[in-house]
Design a protein that fits this description.
Blueprint: H1 2-21, H2 23-29, H3 38-53, H4 69-81, H5 88-101, E1 109-111, H6 113-121, E2 126-129, E3 132-137, E4 140-146, H7 151-155, E5 162-166, E6 169-170, H8 176-183, E7 190-196, E8 204-209, E9 211-214, E10 218-224, E11 227-232, H9 239-252, E12 257-261, H10 270-277, E13 286-291, E14 297-301, E15 312-316, H11 323-335, E16 339-341, E17 349-355, E18 361-370, E19 386-387, H12 412-423, H13 437-449, H14 461-476, H15 479-492
Parallel strand pairs: 11-12, 12-15, 15-16, 16-19
Antiparallel strand pairs: 1-18, 2-9, 3-4, 4-5, 5-6, 5-7, 7-8, 10-11, 13-14, 13-18, 17-18
Helix pairs in contact: 6-8, 10-11, 12-14
């Protein structure tokens, strides 16, 4: 990619500049120097020979780099004066990590060998974990979006949920890669997340069983009247190929119009967003612009490898971020495609990765990306053309299935359960969080209908089944999809 090439070129230039400033080069250029300095030259020659052929290799960084003096002094002081032995590699890694954190950019991170391996697996064919995109935001680890069909989605995690702790370990002050290392693990093992949902009073403990998360990113189906719905869950290595195959299959089934669902899509690879945008944006029209640190703007045009005349609408929400926002903005501004749903997340920067020989790497922000009209949506998001919210019950918090809710309990969990019961057709008559006789009767009716032990206590399988029914209710009463189909039918005429 062009951005990587630019970084390599800059690195070569820096190495050349360092070489040109070194004492050795100056020595060769001024070999005619006065005999008075002969001893100095002789000493330098002996030192050079010793460094080149001795057992201990010494790496020098140019004595004129005075900005590193404080760093060297701190390193030497810790190495020689700390009350117990220190790990030299750990000190160096910590210094790099500290430099990156000082940028105050949640998308620029230094990753250890283990963290880099975990990061790379997120764009490969599969990985083991809970299946959720996270980021560091205002000192907290926040869910950007759960992956479709993942343990995270099944558990009820939603965008903007805050992960307070993992297996009891507080995440305050950690970056996203450190948090990912704690959350991921072998298939079949359990990780306990403490979740704080915005607008709720108390955090909830949620045990989630890890599983293999296949990076299948495209799901398509016909929804009637010649309309197809295709959901893209992330932009991974093979997403564009998956989409082409899915669209070809739907075309054979009579697709005449398309709803492209980018809700809760946290983004991914830039090149995939550009390739997919080219399927719907006329050739030559701008898909995205990149602005570097000097204000230079590079336009990336559509290569038009698809069918830009296919009637199309796009669904977005607050979990649509990064590459999904690039695609949304491209079709909106360069192809006149309407967006439906909620304001998107708002990530308007581009990252690349610098690998190190020990397996660690540095992910850093190298540019802003702008919409075709030159708008920077960072921290602002993209407003839909048709603002449509899901029903209130779609944003209800999860309930810990290990916690028993029974007669005379008073809590926010009881309040959430009461709202869930009402949404799925078992109205308890109140939503204030007090578990009274009517609430118990509603629970018994629900348990009886689901052929569960009718003891009037919400716990375990009863709680899980209640949340499953709610998810089905949200799916069948998807107000955003309904509006998208309505708008698309008007464009198909």
């Amino acid at each position: 990619m062009k951005v990587v090439k630019t970084l390599d070129e800059e690195k070569i230039e820096q190495e050349q500049q360092t070489e040109n400033k070194s004492g050795y080069i100056r020595l060769k250029r001024f070999h005619f120097i006065m005999l008075l300095f002969f001893v100095v030259f002789l000493s330098a020659g002996i030192t050079t020979f010793a460094l080149a052929f001795g057992k201990e290799k010494v790496v020098t960084v140019g004595t004129d780099r005075t900005e590193f003096n404080k760093l060297y002094t701190a390193f030497d002081t810790l190495k020689s004066g700390y009350y117990k032995g220190v790990n030299q590699s750990k000190l160096i890694n910590g210094a790099i990590d500290g430099m990156v954190k000082s940028l105050d950019d949640p998308y620029s991170v230094y990753m250890s060998n283990a963290e880099a391996k975990s990061f790379n697996s997120s764009i490969s064919s599969s990985f083991e974990g809970i299946g959720a995109e996270i980021q560091e935001k205002d000192g907290h680890i926040v869910i950007v979006s759960p992956i479709k069909g993942s343990p995270a989605e099944k558990a009820g995690l939603k965008p903007n949920d805050i992960i307070v702790a993992v297996n009891g370990k507080n995440l305050q002050g950690m970056d996203s890669t450190q948090a990912v290392t704690l959350i991921r693990g072998k298939k079949g093992t359990t990780v306990d997340l403490t979740i704080q949902r915005p607008g709720t009073a108390a955090p909830v403990n949620m045990p989630i069983i890890r599983d293999e998360i296949p990076i299948e990113t495209v799901y398509g189906e016909m929804v009637g009247d010649g309309i197809a719905k295709v959901q893209i869950t992330s932009f991974s290595t093979n997403t564009s190929k998956e989409l082409v195959k899915t669209l070809n299959d739907l075309q054979k089934q009579g697709m005449k119009g398309l709803v492209l669902d980018l809700r809760q899509n946290p983004g991914g690879l830039l090149d995939q967003a550009v390739t997919i945008s080219s399927m719907f944006v006329p050739k030559g029209k701008v898909i995205v612009k990149e602005e570097d640190r000097n204000g230079k703007i590079t336009e990336i045009p559509s290569e038009n490898k698809g069918n830009p005349s296919l009637p199309l609408v796009v669904l977005i929400d607050k979990g649509s971020a990064s590459a999904s926002e690039i695609l949304s903005a491209a079709v909106k501004e360069s192809a006149g495609v309407p967006l439906i749903g909620e304001k998107s997340f708002g990530k308007g920067t581009v990252q690349t990765v610098q690998d190190f020989s020990d397996g660690s790497n540095l992910k850093l922000t190298i540019a802003k990306w702008l919409t075709p009209n030159g708008n920077w949506i960072h921290k602002k998001g993209i407003q839909p053309d048709y603002a449509v919210a899901l029903p209130d019950y779609a944003s209800l918090s999860i309930i810990n299935p290990d916690k028993a809710l029974s007669l005379s309990n008073v809590s926010t969990d009881v309040q959430t359960a009461q709202k869930m019961l009402k949404a799925v057709g078992f109205d308890p008559g109140r939503e204030d969080g007090f578990f009274d006789d009517k609430t118990k009767a509603a629970v018994v009716a629900f348990q009886t209908a689901q052929k569960l032990p009718a003891d009037g206590v919400l716990k375990g399988n009863s709680t899980l089944k209640l949340m499953d029914l709610l998810r089905e209710k949200i799916k069948t009463n998807d107000t955003q999809l309904q509006k998208a189909i309505e708008v698309l039918k008007g464009r198909m005429k």
